Structures are given as structure tokens and as C-alpha cells.
Amino acid sequence: MSAASLQGLRLLISAGPTYEDIDPVRFIGNRSSGKMGFAIAEAAARRGAQVRLVAGPVSLPTPAGVARTDVRSAAQMREAVLAGLPVDAYIGAAAVADYTPAQVAPGKIKKNEARFALELVRTPDILAEVAVHAARPRLVVGFAAETDDVERYARGKLEKKKLDLIAANRVGVPGSGFESDDNALTVYWAGGERALGPAPKTRLADELLDLIAQRLRTA
Ligand code: C5P
To answer: How far apart are CA 25 and CA 173, in angstroms?
Structure first.
């Protein structure tokens, strides 16, 4: 089967974790290699799309033909993503930290106390913001890592965040997940679903792009 072309379409993809600094040497972050988002960026560029990849701190090379912006925190990722609009599709594959320290200590925090409380505040939900933006892409795609009740939580996010598609990681499938080369996804949309994999992330990226291309071509 020849892959559906994305020639002439603009895709904006976020990938990797975000790191939220506590002090100059410590941070809060998510376990994410960025492999899924980078694989989607690479496959989309191969199909002729104009791709911008907003990457959190990862150690992955930039795929051929992809324009990359490196960021560290959720706030920086939000800024870079919003600056990347307008596009035809936004794919939020990043594992954005949900909370960030209320303050960043200017110097290294000393471990003098037996207990230590850190005040955290919610980060902006980049995906939800893109989905209601004045320059909303025609297609907004989210990811969800769920351990239980996958369909219920994924469909809840699809609706609440006003997405067109959500790809849920089927956590618990052997060889799938954050740092693995393989993954298993179920993609949900209003009125349908498709199970992809288990397969290497590079193949899943292509299968996900088939679903995306179909929708962009008919939208
Ligand atoms: O609600 P939850 O974090 O599970 O949603 C995951 C989806 O939302 C992913 O697509 C992720 O990139 C996006 N997200 C975001 N900004 C946040 C948290 C999650 O864009 N602050």
C-alpha cells in the first residue's frame, strides 16, 4: 500500500517531556523519550508535509526535512506551539508536566529539613488551548496514557478538550509505553475507533498518519 500523501499540508507536532525547574539543579518531569512524536514528524515529512516539531528535552536527532524548536518547560512549549499556528493539523504527542513549582529557587535548595513541601501550580493545557484557538487547526489530535478504563478516559478527553482524534496508549501491553520502541494505540473519534499495533512506533506513526491524511483530505 502506498502511503497517503500529505503534500502541501502543514503539521505541528509536540513531542517529549517537559521539565519544570525546582532550583538550578532539580526539576519535575515526565518519563517520555519523545520517540512517538519524532516518528510521526519523520513519517509526515516523508509524505511531503511541512512539519514543525516542538521538542521537550530529549536526546533524539532531528528527522530529515523537519523544522525543530527545542523547549524545556510547559510554558515554553505553549509559547512555541502557539507561535507555530496556523497549521492544518496539530498533534500533541508531548508528555507535558501537569504541575510546575510555584516558584523556582534561585540557589540550590539545601536538605536541612526532614520534611519539605513544594507548592505546585497547574500548567496550561496546550492541547485544549489549541483546540479552541481562533486559528484552530482543522484537525487537533491528542494522546492519552491510560492504565485503566482506557476507552472511558480517552473519550472523556476527546470531548472535554474538543479534539478530533485521540490516540490512547494501551499501557500494560507488553513492550508498549513511554520509553519503549514499540507501542500499542487505540485511536478514538466521535463515532469510531481503530486499534493500532502492537508495532514499532515508526509503523504506528504511519498508520496514525493514514487516519490523519484521510481526514485532512476530506475536510
Ligand atoms: O489530560 P492528559 O494530560 O492525559 O492529556 C494528554 C494530552 O494532552 C496529550 O496530547 C498532551 O500532549 C496534552 N497536554 C497538553 N498540555 C498539558 C497536559 C497535557 O497539551 N498541560
So the answer is: 35
pTM of the predicted structure, to 2 decimals: 0.95
- Compute, in angstroms, the gap from residue 23 CA to the centroid of ligand 1: 24
Residue found under cell 525546582: 22
Asked whether 77 and 56 are in contact (CB, 8 A), the reply is yes
CATH, residue 51: 3.40.50.10300
Examine residue 182 and state whether it is found in any structural domain, yes or no.
yes
Residue 149 is placed in which grid cell?
478504563
Total domain count for the chain?
Answer: 1
In order along its 219 residues, the chain shows pLDDT tens digits of: 467 899 999 999 999 999 999 999 999 999 899 999 999 999 999 999 999 999 999 999 999 999 999 999 999 999 999 999 999 999 999 999 999 999 999 999 999 999 999 999 999 999 999 999 999 999 999 999 888 899 999 999 999 999 999 999 877 666 666 667 788 999 999 999 999 998 999 999 999 999 999 999 876
User: What single letter denotes the amino acid at residue 189?
Assistant: W
Residue of 125, 141, 155, 158 best suited for mutating to test ligand 1, as the one with most atoms within 8 Å of CB: 125
Range of the domain at 162: 10-218
Residue 35 lies in a domain: yes
Annotation says 30 is catalytic: yes
C-alpha cell at 36: 512517538
